[in-house]
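Here's what a typical entry looks like (YdcF family protein):
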Amino acid sequence: MPTGTPIPTTTDVPGPSTARRRWRRAGLIVAVAALVATAAFYGLGYQLFYRDHSDPLRHADAIVVLGGEHDGREDYGLQLAREGYASTVVISNPYLDDHSKSNTQLMQRVCSAGTDTIEVICFDPDPSTTRGEAMKVQQLAEERGWTSVIVVSWRYHLVRARYIFGQCFDGDVVMRAVPRTYPSSFAFWSHVYAYQYGGLVKAAVLGCDK
């Protein structure tokens, strides 16, 4: 045998116990990473979407009721107007494809709820998203000289809606959550967190066309 050539020994070849230790170490790393990611997902989700990020109410040029669900938000927006926080209520109506009697009656009622002192504007957002709603509000603000609005939506939507209005609307925004209760199930909030995270990423990518 040529000199200088190392002779393999049993210590140079990983044995079964060494391979098992490596697999255990890799499995532990994966488990810890998954645990950290899960903790971040739910911990940050709790802070951003579960907690109420409503602003203190103050007078604004208009009250904007975002679409999404008939959970009392339209009447809450009208109530704020009756309490004197704004004389104009802008109600998003992305429900034109919903021909159910309950939806039709509700939208007809709130869209015709204007008085001598309160103006109600209903509109179909294009696109039918928070971004489309914010773009429409910016258009109305430019036409009417608005510099501030109160925006009403779900509690868990406030952070994302604030971010999108910050992109699309040049004025001040007061965010208000619809006064309502929410399901307490783990599955419900897991879905909400995932959807809102995705919506924030989408908003960051799309930006806003003013």
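The mean pLDDT is 92.

More examples are in the samples folder.
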